[in-house]
Specification:
Shape: elongated
Number of strands: 0
Radius of gyration: 28 Å
Strand content: under 5%
Helix content: 55-70%
Distance between the termini: 45 Å
Structural class: mainly alpha
Number of helices: 6
Length: 114
């Protein structure tokens, strides 16, 4: 379930039934939400708009960004890269702090940071 927390994804059949009730039987969005157990009446409006514009296929489309599959190897590579960047950042920060204090030469600083 991608997107905002608390957002519920409804099956395509329920969406089609809501659209049918709205257009063919003339029911209000509030009646449809009560009848079908939909939390948000605005969802019925969106489904109707999508159905009119693009047809049934629009209601079947997945919403949001596709999930990335995290394998152990890719996660390990990401963490190693992050670790390397943090080490470089720490070294630069250490040099900057020592330079501001005017402590030691750059040779001593490099020896102390390793």
């Amino acid at each position: 379930m991608a997107g905002k927390k608390g957002m519920r994804q409804y099956p395509v059949e329920l969406k089609l039934e809501a659209v049918r009730l709205y257009y063919e039987e003339g029911k209000t969005r509030a009646e449809i939400t009560n009848l079908l157990g939909i939390r948000n009446p605005y969802a019925v409006k969106q489904w109707g708009r999508l159905y009119r514009r693009e047809g049934v296929g629009a209601l079947k489309k997945a919403k949001g960004r596709p999930r990335k599959s995290k394998t152990g190897q890719s996660e390990l590579e990401r963490l190693r890269m992050e670790n390397t960047l943090l080490k470089k950042f720490h070294t630069e920060l250490r040099k900057e702090v020592l330079a501001k204090r005017n402590i030691g030469s750059s040779i001593t600083t490099e020896q102390n940071t390793q």
